[in-house]
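Work Package 3 (structural annotation) set out to generate three-dimensional models for the target panel prioritized at the project kickoff. During this period the team completed the workflow that converts sequence records into C-alpha cells, so that structures can be stored uniformly alongside our sequence database. As a representative example, we reproduce one entry of 50 residues exactly as it appears in the project archive.
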Amino acid sequence: MIDLRFIGQPGRFYASAIATVNYICKSWLALMKRCLRRASLTQFQLGGIS
C-alpha cells in the first residue's frame, strides 16, 4: 500500500526503515530465545534435575 504522504522521499529512507525493523525483530527474537532457554534451565534446576 502506498502512502501518499511519503511520495517523493528518497528510497534510502524506505530501505533504512525496513532494515531497522528487521534488526529490531531479529534482536527481539534472539532475546526471547535466550530467555526461554534460561527459564527452562532454571525450571530443571529447581526440580532437582541438573
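DSSP finds one helix and no strands in the chain.
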